[in-house]
Amino acid sequence: MAYYPIFLDLKGKVILVVGGGRVAERKVEALLDSGAEIRIVGGKITEGLNKLVELRDLVCLNDEFQDKHLEGVFLVIAATDDRELNHRISTVAKEKGLLVNAVDQPADCNFIVPSIVRQGDLQIAVSTSGKSPALARKLRKQLDKQFGDEYESFLILMGCLRKKILAQGLAQEENSRIFNEIVNSDILDALLRKDRERTRFILRRSLPDFPDLEECLECLTKRNAL
Questions:
Q1: C-alpha torsion sign, points 13, 17, 22, 27
Q2: Domain total for the chain?
Q3: Same structural domain for residues 130 and 205?
Q4: What pTM, to 2 d.p., does this model score?
């Protein structure tokens, strides 16, 4: 079966993580910046998970899983060390039409979680369709070395530039020319070196009369990225 890759907007959604061990802790860590409301069901949780609950004000029910815990939930992660329990959670969740992932049990999932390379707003998902998570992790580590902090800086800059350029009402072809010219320039190297003058020079080649360039560069300065 070929999986369809997708990025979900979880802001405001209720996510249930069942389990209190290290695996559940990693799953919660990965969800923390998604804007989701995270609920944890686990009779005994790790010290690290307990700290996350306290620091991030998460909902933790020190209880055994019951079907009622699925009420009002959007997505479920079954991360216990009991395969039969994970299977039961998956079965009930699917009956309710919920998204469910049972860790290391592909047959009990209707979605799988890829390995993620993340640099700010840049996210690269690596998946082997469940065939070899170890290979996915290896590839992720290789990509981690390839995509550094300069990509995060670039997307901060482009977030500002794109909004202001589109507001000028230029033709679509002109917008496309500008964006492609910037992407294909050596701006990433300039950002890697935190070279403000070089970054400005590169952008001025594509945007000679752009009035808001300094404002966009200042976005990077405020984050100590330039």
A1: negative
A2: 3
A3: no
A4: 0.85
